[in-house]
Model the fold of this input.
Amino acid sequence: MARTFRNFINGEWVAPSTDAYFDNVNPADTGDLIGRFPDSSSKDVVAAVASAKRGFARWSRTPAPARGDVLRRVGELLEQRKDAIADAMTREMGKVLAEARGDVQEGIDTAFYAATEGRRLFGHVVPSELRSKWAMSYRRPIGVVGLITPFNFPLAIPTWKMFPALLCGNAVIIKPSEDVPHTVHLLVEILLEAGLPPEVVQLVHGRGETVGKALVDHPEVPVISFTGSTDTGALIGETCGRMHKRLSLEMGGKNAMIVMEDADLDLALEGVLWGAFGTTGQRCTATSRLIVHRKVHDRLVRRIAEAAEGLRLGDGRDGKSQVGPLIHEAARDKVERYVGIGQDAGAELVTGGERAGSRGKLGRGWFYRPTVFAGVTAGSRLEQEEIFGPVLSVIRVASYDEAVRVNNGVRYGLSSSIYTRDVDRAFRAMQDLDNGITYVNAPTIGAEAHLPFGGVKATGNGHREGGWEVYKFYSETKVCYVDFSGKLQRAQIDTYDV
Done:
Protein backbone atom coordinates (compact mmCIF):
# COMPACT_ATOMS: atom_id res chain seq x y z
CA MET A 1 0.00 0.00 0.00
CA ALA A 2 1.35 3.45 -0.93
CA ARG A 3 2.51 5.73 1.86
CA THR A 4 0.49 8.82 2.80
CA PHE A 5 2.69 11.87 3.33
CA ARG A 6 2.02 15.01 5.37
CA ASN A 7 2.81 18.70 5.45
CA PHE A 8 5.45 20.06 7.83
CA ILE A 9 3.89 22.94 9.76
CA ASN A 10 4.48 24.29 13.25
CA GLY A 11 7.37 21.90 13.80
CA GLU A 12 5.28 18.79 13.13
CA TRP A 13 4.27 16.48 10.28
CA VAL A 14 0.55 17.14 10.00
CA ALA A 15 -2.38 16.18 7.79
CA PRO A 16 -3.87 18.90 5.57
CA SER A 17 -6.85 20.81 6.85
CA THR A 18 -8.80 19.49 3.85
CA ASP A 19 -8.06 15.84 4.66
CA ALA A 20 -7.63 15.49 0.88
CA TYR A 21 -4.69 13.99 -1.00
CA PHE A 22 -3.40 13.59 -4.55
CA ASP A 23 -1.45 10.73 -6.08
CA ASN A 24 2.19 11.03 -7.07
CA VAL A 25 2.99 8.52 -9.83
CA ASN A 26 6.08 7.49 -11.77
CA PRO A 27 5.89 9.13 -15.25
CA ALA A 28 7.82 6.19 -16.73
CA ASP A 29 5.28 3.72 -15.32
CA THR A 30 1.97 5.27 -14.34
CA GLY A 31 1.00 2.09 -12.49
CA ASP A 32 3.75 2.81 -9.95
CA LEU A 33 2.21 4.89 -7.15
CA ILE A 34 4.93 6.65 -5.15
CA GLY A 35 2.64 8.03 -2.50
CA ARG A 36 -0.33 10.21 -1.60
CA PHE A 37 0.43 13.84 -0.80
CA PRO A 38 -1.61 16.59 0.89
CA ASP A 39 -3.97 18.60 -1.31
CA SER A 40 -3.84 21.54 1.07
CA SER A 41 -5.80 24.77 1.29
CA SER A 42 -5.24 28.39 2.29
CA LYS A 43 -5.87 27.37 5.92
CA ASP A 44 -2.67 25.35 5.88
CA VAL A 45 -0.79 28.35 4.49
CA VAL A 46 -2.15 30.57 7.28
CA ALA A 47 -0.89 28.09 9.89
CA ALA A 48 2.48 27.83 8.15
CA VAL A 49 2.93 31.62 8.12
CA ALA A 50 2.15 31.92 11.82
CA SER A 51 4.73 29.25 12.60
CA ALA A 52 7.32 30.70 10.22
CA LYS A 53 7.05 34.09 11.94
CA ARG A 54 8.03 32.44 15.22
CA GLY A 55 10.86 30.64 13.47
CA PHE A 56 12.08 33.88 11.96
CA ALA A 57 12.21 35.60 15.33
CA ARG A 58 14.69 32.97 16.53
CA TRP A 59 16.65 32.26 13.36
CA SER A 60 17.20 35.90 12.42
CA ARG A 61 19.08 36.37 15.72
CA THR A 62 21.34 33.38 15.07
CA PRO A 63 24.79 34.53 13.87
CA ALA A 64 25.19 34.12 10.13
CA PRO A 65 28.30 31.88 10.47
CA ALA A 66 26.24 29.55 12.71
CA ARG A 67 23.48 29.51 10.11
CA GLY A 68 26.15 28.54 7.59
CA ASP A 69 27.25 25.67 9.81
CA VAL A 70 23.76 24.18 9.61
CA LEU A 71 23.78 24.40 5.83
CA ARG A 72 27.22 22.78 5.71
CA ARG A 73 25.76 19.81 7.60
CA VAL A 74 22.88 19.76 5.11
CA GLY A 75 25.42 19.50 2.30
CA GLU A 76 27.20 16.65 4.04
CA LEU A 77 23.94 14.72 4.49
CA LEU A 78 23.00 15.29 0.86
CA GLU A 79 26.40 13.97 -0.14
CA GLN A 80 25.94 10.83 1.95
CA ARG A 81 22.49 10.16 0.46
CA LYS A 82 23.13 11.31 -3.08
CA ASP A 83 22.36 8.01 -4.80
CA ALA A 84 19.22 7.32 -2.76
CA ILE A 85 17.82 10.81 -3.39
CA ALA A 86 18.66 10.58 -7.09
CA ASP A 87 16.82 7.27 -7.36
CA ALA A 88 13.75 8.74 -5.65
CA MET A 89 13.94 11.80 -7.90
CA THR A 90 14.12 9.73 -11.09
CA ARG A 91 11.18 7.66 -9.95
CA GLU A 92 8.91 10.70 -9.58
CA MET A 93 10.32 13.04 -12.25
CA GLY A 94 11.64 10.71 -14.94
CA LYS A 95 15.07 12.13 -15.75
CA VAL A 96 17.85 9.55 -16.13
CA LEU A 97 19.91 8.73 -13.06
CA ALA A 98 23.04 10.50 -14.25
CA GLU A 99 21.02 13.71 -14.53
CA ALA A 100 19.31 13.13 -11.19
CA ARG A 101 22.67 12.69 -9.49
CA GLY A 102 23.74 15.96 -11.10
CA ASP A 103 20.59 17.58 -9.72
CA VAL A 104 21.53 16.44 -6.20
CA GLN A 105 25.11 17.61 -6.74
CA GLU A 106 23.76 21.09 -7.52
CA GLY A 107 22.11 21.02 -4.10
CA ILE A 108 25.35 19.89 -2.45
CA ASP A 109 27.34 22.62 -4.19
CA THR A 110 24.73 25.22 -3.25
CA ALA A 111 24.80 24.14 0.41
CA PHE A 112 28.57 24.39 0.67
CA TYR A 113 28.63 27.71 -1.17
CA ALA A 114 25.92 29.08 1.13
CA ALA A 115 27.86 27.92 4.19
CA THR A 116 30.84 30.06 3.19
CA GLU A 117 28.62 33.07 2.61
CA GLY A 118 27.76 33.01 6.31
CA ARG A 119 31.08 34.75 6.81
CA ARG A 120 30.76 36.98 3.74
CA LEU A 121 27.49 38.90 4.03
CA PHE A 122 29.39 42.07 3.27
CA GLY A 123 28.21 45.57 3.93
CA HIS A 124 30.14 48.76 3.24
CA VAL A 125 31.96 51.31 5.33
CA VAL A 126 32.40 54.63 3.55
CA PRO A 127 33.79 58.03 4.57
CA SER A 128 31.26 60.45 6.01
CA GLU A 129 31.13 63.97 4.63
CA LEU A 130 31.25 65.23 8.22
CA ARG A 131 34.00 65.09 10.81
CA SER A 132 34.06 62.48 13.60
CA LYS A 133 31.23 60.51 12.03
CA TRP A 134 31.07 56.85 10.93
CA ALA A 135 28.91 55.73 7.98
CA MET A 136 28.21 52.10 7.10
CA SER A 137 25.71 49.57 5.79
CA TYR A 138 25.01 45.93 6.59
CA ARG A 139 22.72 43.14 5.35
CA ARG A 140 19.86 41.96 7.54
CA PRO A 141 17.06 39.38 7.14
CA ILE A 142 13.65 40.31 5.77
CA GLY A 143 11.13 37.85 7.23
CA VAL A 144 9.04 34.98 5.88
CA VAL A 145 9.91 33.91 2.34
CA GLY A 146 7.51 32.00 0.09
CA LEU A 147 9.11 29.61 -2.40
CA ILE A 148 7.20 28.10 -5.33
CA THR A 149 9.24 25.59 -7.30
CA PRO A 150 8.77 23.59 -10.55
CA PHE A 151 9.04 19.91 -11.41
CA ASN A 152 12.09 19.76 -13.66
CA PHE A 153 14.82 20.17 -11.01
CA PRO A 154 13.18 18.68 -7.92
CA LEU A 155 16.14 19.31 -5.60
CA ALA A 156 18.42 21.85 -7.30
CA ILE A 157 15.88 24.65 -7.70
CA PRO A 158 14.47 24.36 -4.14
CA THR A 159 18.02 24.56 -2.80
CA TRP A 160 18.90 27.52 -5.05
CA LYS A 161 16.06 29.38 -3.39
CA MET A 162 15.99 27.95 0.11
CA PHE A 163 19.66 27.89 1.12
CA PRO A 164 20.42 31.57 0.40
CA ALA A 165 17.14 32.60 2.05
CA LEU A 166 18.01 30.62 5.17
CA LEU A 167 21.62 31.77 5.23
CA CYS A 168 20.42 35.38 5.22
CA GLY A 169 18.33 34.66 8.32
CA ASN A 170 14.84 34.31 6.85
CA ALA A 171 12.25 31.62 7.56
CA VAL A 172 10.91 29.79 4.50
CA ILE A 173 7.67 28.23 3.35
CA ILE A 174 8.04 25.98 0.31
CA LYS A 175 5.32 24.84 -2.04
CA PRO A 176 6.90 22.29 -4.40
CA SER A 177 5.38 21.23 -7.69
CA GLU A 178 2.64 18.67 -7.13
CA ASP A 179 4.42 16.56 -9.77
CA VAL A 180 7.53 16.08 -7.60
CA PRO A 181 6.57 16.43 -3.93
CA HIS A 182 8.64 13.53 -2.58
CA THR A 183 12.08 15.01 -3.28
CA VAL A 184 11.34 18.17 -1.28
CA HIS A 185 9.94 16.02 1.52
CA LEU A 186 13.34 14.30 1.69
CA LEU A 187 15.09 17.67 1.65
CA VAL A 188 13.07 18.96 4.60
CA GLU A 189 13.86 15.81 6.56
CA ILE A 190 17.56 16.47 5.97
CA LEU A 191 17.25 20.13 7.03
CA LEU A 192 15.72 19.08 10.32
CA GLU A 193 18.32 16.36 10.87
CA ALA A 194 21.07 18.92 10.25
CA GLY A 195 19.81 21.06 13.11
CA LEU A 196 17.61 23.69 11.48
CA PRO A 197 15.11 24.89 14.12
CA PRO A 198 11.79 23.27 13.14
CA GLU A 199 9.71 26.42 12.71
CA VAL A 200 12.25 27.98 10.33
CA VAL A 201 11.04 25.73 7.50
CA GLN A 202 7.45 24.91 6.53
CA LEU A 203 6.44 22.48 3.78
CA VAL A 204 2.93 22.87 2.35
CA HIS A 205 1.97 20.57 -0.51
CA GLY A 206 -0.85 21.35 -2.89
CA ARG A 207 -1.97 23.00 -6.10
CA GLY A 208 -0.65 26.24 -7.46
CA GLU A 209 -4.11 27.76 -7.74
CA THR A 210 -4.78 27.14 -4.03
CA VAL A 211 -1.59 26.84 -1.96
CA GLY A 212 0.61 28.88 -4.30
CA LYS A 213 -1.98 31.63 -4.59
CA ALA A 214 -2.53 31.73 -0.83
CA LEU A 215 1.19 32.09 -0.27
CA VAL A 216 1.44 34.96 -2.76
CA ASP A 217 -1.68 36.66 -1.35
CA HIS A 218 -0.69 36.45 2.32
CA PRO A 219 0.16 39.92 3.67
CA GLU A 220 2.78 38.59 6.09
CA VAL A 221 4.93 36.93 3.42
CA PRO A 222 7.01 39.87 2.18
CA VAL A 223 9.21 37.89 -0.23
CA ILE A 224 8.20 35.51 -3.04
CA SER A 225 10.48 33.51 -5.33
CA PHE A 226 8.80 31.71 -8.22
CA THR A 227 10.07 29.49 -11.02
CA GLY A 228 7.53 28.50 -13.65
CA SER A 229 5.65 29.77 -16.68
CA THR A 230 5.74 33.36 -17.87
CA ASP A 231 1.94 33.63 -17.77
CA THR A 232 1.77 32.52 -14.13
CA GLY A 233 4.70 34.75 -13.25
CA ALA A 234 2.87 37.74 -14.69
CA LEU A 235 -0.13 37.06 -12.43
CA ILE A 236 2.12 36.72 -9.40
CA GLY A 237 3.86 39.94 -10.37
CA GLU A 238 0.55 41.82 -10.40
CA THR A 239 -0.24 40.70 -6.85
CA CYS A 240 3.24 41.32 -5.48
CA GLY A 241 3.39 44.75 -7.09
CA ARG A 242 0.08 45.73 -5.54
CA MET A 243 1.18 44.42 -2.11
CA HIS A 244 4.70 45.86 -2.32
CA LYS A 245 6.36 42.48 -2.01
CA ARG A 246 9.87 41.63 -3.10
CA LEU A 247 9.62 39.19 -6.00
CA SER A 248 12.04 37.06 -7.99
CA LEU A 249 10.68 35.49 -11.18
CA GLU A 250 12.43 32.81 -13.22
CA MET A 251 10.22 31.96 -16.17
CA GLY A 252 10.23 30.73 -19.76
CA GLY A 253 12.90 30.35 -22.41
CA LYS A 254 13.23 29.71 -26.14
CA ASN A 255 16.95 29.18 -26.24
CA ALA A 256 19.01 29.03 -29.40
CA MET A 257 22.31 27.41 -30.25
CA ILE A 258 24.08 29.05 -33.17
CA VAL A 259 26.40 26.96 -35.34
CA MET A 260 28.61 28.97 -37.67
CA GLU A 261 30.31 27.70 -40.82
CA ASP A 262 33.68 27.35 -39.05
CA ALA A 263 32.34 25.35 -36.09
CA ASP A 264 33.63 21.96 -34.94
CA LEU A 265 30.61 19.94 -36.09
CA ASP A 266 31.46 16.91 -33.98
CA LEU A 267 31.39 19.12 -30.88
CA ALA A 268 28.25 20.90 -32.06
CA LEU A 269 26.49 17.57 -32.62
CA GLU A 270 27.20 16.43 -29.08
CA GLY A 271 26.11 19.80 -27.73
CA VAL A 272 22.77 19.96 -29.52
CA LEU A 273 21.82 16.40 -28.59
CA TRP A 274 22.51 17.13 -24.92
CA GLY A 275 20.93 20.59 -25.03
CA ALA A 276 17.77 19.58 -26.91
CA PHE A 277 17.04 16.13 -25.50
CA GLY A 278 18.65 16.11 -22.06
CA THR A 279 15.92 16.04 -19.39
CA THR A 280 13.62 15.25 -22.35
CA GLY A 281 13.77 18.92 -23.29
CA GLN A 282 12.14 19.88 -19.98
CA ARG A 283 14.60 22.59 -18.98
CA CYS A 284 14.05 26.33 -19.10
CA THR A 285 17.52 26.44 -20.70
CA ALA A 286 16.89 23.60 -23.18
CA THR A 287 18.16 24.07 -26.74
CA SER A 288 14.81 24.54 -28.43
CA ARG A 289 16.16 26.30 -31.52
CA LEU A 290 19.20 25.49 -33.65
CA ILE A 291 20.35 28.36 -35.87
CA VAL A 292 22.74 26.95 -38.50
CA HIS A 293 24.81 28.64 -41.18
CA ARG A 294 23.71 27.50 -44.63
CA LYS A 295 27.17 26.15 -45.52
CA VAL A 296 26.96 23.41 -42.86
CA HIS A 297 23.17 23.17 -42.44
CA ASP A 298 22.36 20.03 -44.45
CA ARG A 299 25.31 18.05 -43.16
CA LEU A 300 24.61 18.89 -39.51
CA VAL A 301 20.85 18.26 -39.73
CA ARG A 302 21.44 14.85 -41.28
CA ARG A 303 23.84 13.90 -38.49
CA ILE A 304 21.49 15.16 -35.77
CA ALA A 305 18.61 13.10 -37.16
CA GLU A 306 20.70 9.93 -37.29
CA ALA A 307 21.95 10.45 -33.73
CA ALA A 308 18.50 11.34 -32.35
CA GLU A 309 17.02 8.16 -33.82
CA GLY A 310 19.67 6.19 -31.93
CA LEU A 311 18.89 7.64 -28.49
CA ARG A 312 17.52 5.00 -26.15
CA LEU A 313 14.26 5.86 -24.39
CA GLY A 314 13.24 4.23 -21.14
CA ASP A 315 12.89 4.34 -17.37
CA GLY A 316 15.61 6.64 -16.06
CA ARG A 317 16.63 4.09 -13.45
CA ASP A 318 17.68 1.72 -16.21
CA GLY A 319 21.35 2.45 -16.78
CA LYS A 320 20.92 2.01 -20.54
CA SER A 321 18.29 4.76 -20.88
CA GLN A 322 19.36 8.09 -22.38
CA VAL A 323 16.00 9.89 -22.55
CA GLY A 324 13.23 9.57 -20.01
CA PRO A 325 9.50 10.34 -20.18
CA LEU A 326 7.70 13.65 -20.14
CA ILE A 327 6.36 14.58 -16.72
CA HIS A 328 2.68 13.80 -17.38
CA GLU A 329 0.04 13.27 -20.04
CA ALA A 330 -0.69 16.98 -20.49
CA ALA A 331 2.97 17.62 -21.26
CA ARG A 332 2.98 14.94 -23.93
CA ASP A 333 -0.26 16.27 -25.38
CA LYS A 334 1.34 19.72 -25.63
CA VAL A 335 4.31 18.31 -27.54
CA GLU A 336 1.94 16.55 -29.94
CA ARG A 337 0.04 19.81 -30.52
CA TYR A 338 3.23 21.63 -31.43
CA VAL A 339 4.30 18.87 -33.78
CA GLY A 340 0.99 19.42 -35.57
CA ILE A 341 1.50 23.19 -35.56
CA GLY A 342 4.92 22.75 -37.15
CA GLN A 343 3.61 20.44 -39.86
CA ASP A 344 0.68 22.73 -40.62
CA ALA A 345 3.13 25.62 -41.03
CA GLY A 346 5.13 23.69 -43.61
CA ALA A 347 8.20 22.81 -41.53
CA GLU A 348 9.93 19.56 -42.49
CA LEU A 349 9.60 16.78 -39.92
CA VAL A 350 13.04 15.18 -40.18
CA THR A 351 12.65 12.59 -37.42
CA GLY A 352 10.43 11.75 -34.46
CA GLY A 353 7.02 13.36 -34.20
CA GLU A 354 5.33 10.42 -32.51
CA ARG A 355 4.79 8.62 -29.23
CA ALA A 356 7.41 6.07 -28.37
CA GLY A 357 5.01 3.14 -28.37
CA SER A 358 1.72 1.92 -26.98
CA ARG A 359 2.95 -1.52 -25.96
CA GLY A 360 5.64 -2.84 -23.66
CA LYS A 361 7.45 -0.79 -21.04
CA LEU A 362 7.35 2.46 -22.98
CA GLY A 363 3.60 2.18 -23.30
CA ARG A 364 3.25 2.51 -19.53
CA GLY A 365 4.79 6.00 -19.45
CA TRP A 366 4.64 9.43 -21.08
CA PHE A 367 7.35 8.83 -23.68
CA TYR A 368 7.78 10.81 -26.90
CA ARG A 369 10.46 10.34 -29.52
CA PRO A 370 13.14 13.02 -29.93
CA THR A 371 11.86 15.23 -32.73
CA VAL A 372 13.70 17.42 -35.23
CA PHE A 373 12.12 19.96 -37.59
CA ALA A 374 14.07 21.61 -40.42
CA GLY A 375 12.95 24.50 -42.59
CA VAL A 376 11.49 26.30 -39.59
CA THR A 377 10.72 29.93 -40.33
CA ALA A 378 11.79 32.71 -38.00
CA GLY A 379 8.65 34.20 -36.48
CA SER A 380 6.58 30.99 -36.73
CA ARG A 381 4.92 29.55 -33.65
CA LEU A 382 7.27 26.57 -33.62
CA GLU A 383 10.22 28.97 -33.52
CA GLN A 384 8.71 31.44 -31.06
CA GLU A 385 6.79 29.52 -28.38
CA GLU A 386 8.13 27.45 -25.50
CA ILE A 387 7.28 23.75 -25.93
CA PHE A 388 9.11 22.21 -22.96
CA GLY A 389 9.67 18.86 -24.61
CA PRO A 390 12.05 16.99 -26.94
CA VAL A 391 11.44 19.12 -30.04
CA LEU A 392 14.27 20.87 -31.90
CA SER A 393 13.53 23.56 -34.50
CA VAL A 394 16.29 24.21 -37.05
CA ILE A 395 16.53 27.62 -38.75
CA ARG A 396 18.90 28.15 -41.68
CA VAL A 397 20.78 31.50 -41.85
CA ALA A 398 23.25 33.08 -44.22
CA SER A 399 25.40 35.14 -41.85
CA TYR A 400 26.39 35.88 -38.27
CA ASP A 401 24.26 39.03 -38.23
CA GLU A 402 21.19 37.08 -39.34
CA ALA A 403 21.86 34.47 -36.65
CA VAL A 404 21.94 37.18 -33.99
CA ARG A 405 18.66 38.70 -35.27
CA VAL A 406 16.94 35.30 -35.12
CA ASN A 407 18.31 34.58 -31.65
CA ASN A 408 17.11 37.92 -30.31
CA GLY A 409 13.76 37.86 -32.11
CA VAL A 410 11.78 36.05 -29.39
CA ARG A 411 10.05 37.28 -26.25
CA TYR A 412 12.39 35.31 -23.99
CA GLY A 413 16.02 35.91 -23.13
CA LEU A 414 17.40 33.18 -20.88
CA SER A 415 20.26 31.26 -22.52
CA SER A 416 22.12 31.21 -25.82
CA SER A 417 25.21 29.60 -27.32
CA ILE A 418 27.48 29.88 -30.33
CA TYR A 419 29.83 27.35 -31.90
CA THR A 420 32.69 28.99 -33.75
CA ARG A 421 36.50 28.86 -33.97
CA ASP A 422 36.68 32.63 -34.52
CA VAL A 423 37.64 34.27 -31.22
CA ASP A 424 36.55 37.73 -32.41
CA ARG A 425 33.12 36.40 -33.36
CA ALA A 426 32.83 34.61 -30.00
CA PHE A 427 33.39 37.84 -28.11
CA ARG A 428 31.00 39.70 -30.39
CA ALA A 429 28.35 37.08 -29.60
CA MET A 430 28.78 37.55 -25.86
CA GLN A 431 27.93 41.20 -26.43
CA ASP A 432 25.30 40.87 -29.17
CA LEU A 433 23.13 37.96 -27.96
CA ASP A 434 20.29 39.35 -25.86
CA ASN A 435 20.25 36.75 -23.10
CA GLY A 436 21.16 36.44 -19.45
CA ILE A 437 23.58 33.59 -20.26
CA THR A 438 25.76 32.92 -23.31
CA TYR A 439 27.94 29.85 -23.85
CA VAL A 440 30.74 29.60 -26.39
CA ASN A 441 31.28 26.13 -27.89
CA ALA A 442 28.87 24.57 -25.41
CA PRO A 443 25.08 24.03 -25.45
CA THR A 444 22.56 26.29 -23.79
CA ILE A 445 22.45 24.21 -20.60
CA GLY A 446 25.06 23.81 -17.87
CA ALA A 447 24.79 26.63 -15.31
CA GLU A 448 27.10 26.44 -12.28
CA ALA A 449 25.96 27.02 -8.71
CA HIS A 450 28.42 29.80 -7.86
CA LEU A 451 27.38 32.08 -10.74
CA PRO A 452 24.20 34.15 -11.12
CA PHE A 453 21.45 32.48 -13.16
CA GLY A 454 18.59 34.19 -14.94
CA GLY A 455 17.41 35.97 -18.05
CA VAL A 456 15.99 39.10 -19.60
CA LYS A 457 12.73 40.11 -21.27
CA ALA A 458 9.86 37.68 -20.52
CA THR A 459 12.24 35.25 -18.83
CA GLY A 460 12.64 37.19 -15.59
CA ASN A 461 12.20 40.43 -13.69
CA GLY A 462 15.84 41.39 -13.16
CA HIS A 463 16.79 39.25 -10.19
CA ARG A 464 19.13 36.27 -10.37
CA GLU A 465 19.25 32.87 -8.73
CA GLY A 466 22.60 31.50 -7.58
CA GLY A 467 25.98 33.05 -7.08
CA TRP A 468 26.58 36.14 -4.98
CA GLU A 469 23.68 38.20 -6.33
CA VAL A 470 20.94 36.05 -4.81
CA TYR A 471 22.09 36.95 -1.28
CA LYS A 472 21.19 40.56 -1.98
CA PHE A 473 17.68 39.50 -2.96
CA TYR A 474 17.08 37.65 0.32
CA SER A 475 18.38 40.42 2.58
CA GLU A 476 17.81 44.11 3.18
CA THR A 477 20.42 46.84 3.26
CA LYS A 478 20.41 48.88 6.42
CA VAL A 479 22.50 52.05 6.71
CA CYS A 480 23.83 53.22 10.09
CA TYR A 481 25.55 56.44 11.15
CA VAL A 482 27.54 57.03 14.36
CA ASP A 483 28.37 60.62 15.22
CA PHE A 484 31.06 60.88 17.91
CA SER A 485 31.80 64.59 17.47
CA GLY A 486 29.90 65.58 20.59
CA LYS A 487 27.98 68.28 18.78
CA LEU A 488 25.13 68.65 16.29
CA GLN A 489 26.36 68.26 12.75
CA ARG A 490 23.80 68.93 10.06
CA ALA A 491 23.96 66.76 6.99
CA GLN A 492 22.18 67.87 3.82
CA ILE A 493 22.86 71.47 4.79
CA ASP A 494 25.38 73.48 2.80
CA THR A 495 28.33 73.73 5.21
CA TYR A 496 30.94 74.34 2.53
CA ASP A 497 32.60 77.70 2.33
CA VAL A 498 31.26 79.75 -0.56
Notes: The radius of gyration is 24 Å. Residues 97-117 form the longest helix (21 residues).
